[in-house]
Backbone:
């Protein structure tokens, strides 16, 4: 069905990023605290994943060997830590600024891979990443003056702390990605179920059990988050992590904010500005350039030759 691991991984990553772009809608519609939503998402997702790995007989003794299990567990701790830091950053800086700081994660992934594994990106890749980041800036729609005002306002210490929390979340997500790639011999469903199960345990102190959902619509949104946006999504996303280069993972990650923008437009009737449209074009151009290995020299010749 698929021509190569790269083709299958790319399709899986694109689907995962499209699903990621819908998470905000279901979180808002659930009408629960972030902690309750994430905890219930972990519980439901872990149960679905456990059923999946048991039915497919993927859970073997080899998974629980010391080095392999510890690598998976460290990735899980980083995954949950990334959620905690990101949500905490919302208390210190505007949501939009947190999101753009968090989505610098693809750059961190490329740079950390270069340092740890000597996977040095080409000049063309760095250019496309820079274009994608510029597109992200336009999509989020943060005026430069607003960022300056946040950082240099009287509450500058809190603002800087909030930025550090968001960047810390991005760094931890980068660690999760690299840890998942490191155990490519382990089925993606097994990696996901272990990480999400321990993630749920880690979140227990913050859960407000007295205010769990009381309506069927809230439970419906949370069930979708758990079954589709966790159980199914993490299987295909982790499989993509194990199949793709860090560069391609990084650039495909920019699909997420584009989808989130369209979800806002459709579900909450938020208008899409001309600058946001330009940002979408820049991101999709950068994604296509890396995915299809466009050569800058050839493009230049086509344009000016």
Residues:
């Amino acid at each position: 069905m698929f021509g190569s691991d790269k083709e299958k991984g790319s399709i899986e990553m694109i689907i995962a990023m499209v699903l990621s772009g819908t998470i905000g809608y279901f979180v808002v519609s659930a009408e629960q605290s972030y902690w309750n939503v994430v905890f219930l998402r972990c519980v439901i997702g872990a149960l679905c994943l456990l059923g999946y790995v048991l039915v497919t007989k993927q859970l073997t003794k080899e998974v629980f060997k010391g080095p392999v299990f510890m690598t998976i567990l460290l990735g899980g701790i980083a995954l949950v830590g990334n959620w905690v830091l990101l949500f905490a950053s919302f208390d210190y800086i505007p949501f939009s600024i947190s999101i753009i700081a968090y989505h610098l994660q693809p750059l961190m992934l490329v740079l950390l891979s270069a340092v740890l594994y000597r996977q040095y990106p080409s000049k063309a890749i760095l250019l496309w990443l820079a274009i994608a980041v510029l597109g992200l800036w336009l999509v989020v729609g943060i005026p430069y003056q607003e960022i300056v005002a946040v950082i240099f306002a009287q509450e500058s210490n809190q603002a800087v702390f909030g930025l550090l929390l968001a960047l810390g979340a991005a760094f931890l997500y980068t660690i999760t990605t690299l840890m998942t790639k490191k155990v490519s011999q382990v089925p993606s469903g097994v990696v996901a179920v272990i990480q999400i199960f321990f993630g749920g345990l880690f979140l227990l102190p913050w859960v407000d059990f007295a205010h769990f959902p009381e309506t069927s619509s809230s439970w419906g949104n949370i069930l979708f988050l758990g079954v589709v946006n966790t159980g199914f999504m993490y299987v295909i996303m982790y499989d993509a992590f194990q199949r793709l280069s860090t560069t391609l993972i990084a650039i495909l990650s920019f699909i997420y904010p584009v989808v989130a923008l369209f979800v806002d437009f459709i579900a909450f009737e938020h208008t899409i500005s001309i600058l946001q449209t330009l940002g979408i074009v820049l991101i999709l151009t950068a994604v296509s350039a890396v995915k299809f290995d466009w050569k800058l020299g050839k493009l230049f010749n086509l344009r000016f030759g």
